[in-house]
Automatic annotation (TrEMBL):
It comes from Candidatus Thermofonsia Clade 3 bacterium. The chain crosses the membrane at residues 12-34. It comes from the Bacteria. This is Phosphotransferase. Keywords: Membrane, Transmembrane, Transmembrane helix.
């Protein structure tokens, strides 16, 4: 499913919170998602690379595909 409302380059830090656009969930191993839409990082600095059809979250040592599903 293609997602149209994503920022292409978003930097955020460990122990921080990233407020997602309402109506979306993120499912990915190693992360916590709360119903309120806050993304809690476990460690490190991460960069979001995304286009409308292939969102990817990555850091220097790993790349993890994530799914965006309407709530």
């Amino acid at each position: 499913m293609c997602i149209e409302h994503l920022h292409l380059e978003v930097w955020f830090l460990a122990s921080g919170f990233w407020l997602l656009d309402s109506g979306f969930w993120i499912l990915a191993s190693g992360f916590w998602i709360l119903d309120s839409g806050f993304w809690i990082l476990d460690s490190g600095s991460w960069q979001l690379h995304a286009n409308a059809c292939s969102p990817v979250i990555s850091r220097p040592t790993t790349s993890v595909l994530i799914s965006f599903v309407p709530s």
